[in-house]
């Protein structure tokens, strides 16, 4: 874009910004053009129905995954066979209409993850203790309790392949997943004593609940499984605290992993220590080896969201800024009511770090959360989460009237971490959560989650109901 056009665009954005602020101080100002549509899938019995992840393809189609406890109506599609802990995969067209829905699995602790491969085919990972008889997966996946399933479907909803893994020890559970440009899938989760995928078995070394990281090729074949675990954990009867929270792949096929540990951790054979509970970020190459991991003996932030931008910089979001620092020589962030965001270059230099979200309540016990992030092709950053109490993002502020309810928000940052716009649902329609975000090639962003009653953003409104919502914010 020419400099003159950039200047005119900037002036237009500023005029729109101040116009929005004057119209409604309770709804944060925005340079986006507004909510284009809000779609929903409701439970007629007002039971739980949640969207846990969302992705969009090059044609503007939207895919969501989630779970429900009873039958749910997806537009013209009614899923009558849903029972407690039923996970699903659904496709929507660019207008927000449901095209098809797949009944995937059953679990008492449902979790389902979603990525799209280079052709726009959905890849899902899910926890299951049982499988519905009408989805063909029960003929492919192991039938023992507490397993992890990995499957790929075509964009039209046709089953392409499935892989089952886990053990009989009730400890297998998926945490997060990422996919690289060559369609290799990286998966992290928990296990107890051992876990098996195809001909690869990982045996836990340190007598505690372990965390595995595995790689699969585009056809579902497991290439390797590695362990990330505490090796000197004082409460060995408890769940292992060396958890993995987020993953993201760069253009070279490396996978970044963020998580936390309490004392001494072995990350794929690399030992690090901390004097207090600490977060970490490590980079794993395509062969399953650790290239590097963040410094030890400091309290590093525990980032809940990771995304890699067009220049292979790693954007990290959603860490509490209480008594943490990025390097031994960097400034100490000390706020317990702020969320920290930062950017790390491919050469491991921190480009910036900013406390972007501020709340009047402590994080993470109350306050605000960053649940998911995405980037557009210009390197701008989008993130979404929930807020409780008074929340400020840049110069934008909003609040809930009840300590028991949460509002949702979505925000856009420039590539250098400056707030461009913020949107939230209307105050009267609290009691909702935004779980995931995706950005398409035209910089439109989509958020998905659940709502417990009537729900509205800008002038778009859903009547009273309980279930899944998906909203499009047009750029």
User: Rg, please?
Assistant: 22 Å
Counted beta strands: 38
Give the strand line-up of the largest sheet.
8-9-10-11-14-15
Report strand %: over 45%
Shape category = globular
Please name the defining characteristics of this protein.
mainly beta, 49% strand, 475 residues, 6-stranded antiparallel β-sheet
What's the helix and strand layout?
Elements: H1 3-23, E1 34-42, E2 49-56, E3 62-68, E4 72-74, E5 77-79, E6 86-92, E7 98-106, E8 112-116, E9 122-128, E10 147-153, E11 159-166, E12 173-179, E13 185-191, E14 194-197, E15 200-203, E16 210-216, E17 222-230, E18 243-249, E19 255-261, E20 264-267, E21 270-273, E22 278-284, E23 290-293, E24 305-308, E25 314-320, E26 338-344, E27 350-359, E28 372-375, E29 381-387, E30 390-393, E31 396-399, E32 407-413, E33 419-424, E34 432-439, E35 445-451, E36 455-457, E37 460-462, E38 467-474
Antiparallel strand pairs: 1-38, 2-3, 3-6, 4-5, 6-7, 8-9, 9-10, 10-11, 11-14, 12-13, 13-16, 14-15, 16-17, 17-20, 18-19, 19-22, 20-21, 22-23, 24-25, 25-26, 26-27, 27-30, 28-29, 29-32, 30-31, 32-33, 34-35, 35-38, 36-37
Overview of this structure, please?
The protein has one helix spanning 3-23; strands spanning 34-42, 49-56, 62-68, 72-74, 77-79, 86-92, 98-106, 112-116, 122-128, 147-153, 159-166, 173-179, 185-191, 194-197, 200-203, 210-216, 222-230, 243-249, 255-261, 264-267, 270-273, 278-284, 290-293, 305-308, 314-320, 338-344, 350-359, 372-375, 381-387, 390-393, 396-399, 407-413, 419-424, 432-439, 445-451, 455-457, 460-462, 467-474. Strand 6 (86-92) and strand 7 (98-106) form a beta hairpin. The radius of gyration is 22 Å and the shape is globular. Helices cover 4% and strands 49% of the residues. Mean pLDDT is 85; it is low at 1-30 and 235-240. The protein has one helix and 38 strands. The protein has a domain at 1-31. It starts with a helix and ends with a strand.
């Amino acid at each position: 874009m020419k400099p003159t056009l950039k200047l005119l665009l900037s002036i237009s954005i500023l005029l729109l910004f101040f116009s929005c602020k004057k119209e409604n101080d309770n709804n944060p100002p925005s340079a986006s053009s507004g909510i284009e549509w809000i779609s929903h899938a409701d439970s007629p019995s007002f039971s739980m129905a949640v969207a846990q992840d969302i992705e969009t393809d090059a044609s503007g189609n939207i895919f969501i995954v989630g779970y429900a406890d009873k039958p749910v109506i997806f537009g013209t599609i009614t899923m009558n066979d849903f029972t407690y802990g039923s996970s699903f995969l659904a496709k929507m067209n660019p207008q927000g209409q449901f095209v098809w829905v797949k009944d995937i699995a059953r679990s008492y602790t449902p979790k389902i993850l979603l990525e799209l491969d280079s052709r726009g085919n959905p890849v899902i990972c899910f926890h299951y203790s049982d499988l519905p008889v009408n989805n063909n997966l029960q003929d492919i996946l192991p039938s023992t309790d507490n397993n992890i399933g990995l499957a790929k479907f075509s964009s039209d909803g046709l089953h392409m392949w499935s892989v089952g893994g886990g053990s009989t020890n009730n400890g297998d559970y998926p945490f997060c997943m990422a996919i690289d440009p060559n369609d290799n899938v990286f998966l992290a989760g928990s296990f107890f004593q051992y876990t098996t995928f195809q001909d690869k078995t990982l045996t836990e070394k340190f007598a505690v609940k372990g965390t595995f990281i595995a790689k699969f090729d585009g056809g579902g074949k497991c290439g390797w499984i590695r362990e990330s675990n505490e090796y000197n954990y004082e409460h060995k009867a408890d769940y292992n605290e060396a958890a993995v929270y987020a993953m993201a792949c760069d253009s070279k096929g490396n996978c970044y992993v963020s998580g936390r540990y309490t004392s001494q951790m072995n990350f794929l054979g690399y030992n690090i220590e901390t004097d207090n509970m600490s977060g970490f970020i490590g980079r794993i190459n395509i062969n399953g080896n650790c290239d590097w991991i963040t410094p030890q003996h400091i309290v590093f932030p525990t980032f809940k969201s990771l995304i890699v931008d067009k220049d292979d910089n790693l954007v990290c979001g959603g860490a509490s800024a209480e008594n943490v620092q990025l390097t031994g020589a960097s400034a100490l962030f000390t706020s317990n009511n702020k969320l920290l965001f930062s950017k790390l270059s491919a050469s491991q230099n921190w480009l910036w770090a900013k406390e972007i979200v501020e709340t009047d309540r402590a994080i993470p016990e109350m306050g605000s959360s960053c649940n998911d992030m995405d980037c557009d092709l210009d390197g701008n950053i989008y993130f979404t989460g929930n807020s409780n109490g008074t929340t400020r993002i840049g110069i934008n502020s909003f609040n809930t009237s009840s300590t028991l309810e949460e509002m949702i928000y979505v925000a856009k940052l420039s590539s250098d971490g400056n707030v461009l716009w913020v949107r939230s649902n209307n105050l009267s329609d609290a009691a909702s959560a935004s779980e995931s975000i995706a950005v398409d090639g035209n910089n439109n962003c989509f958020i998905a989650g659940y709502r417990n009653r009537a729900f509205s953003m800008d002038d778009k409104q859903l009547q009273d109901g309980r279930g899944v919502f998906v909203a499009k914010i047009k750029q």
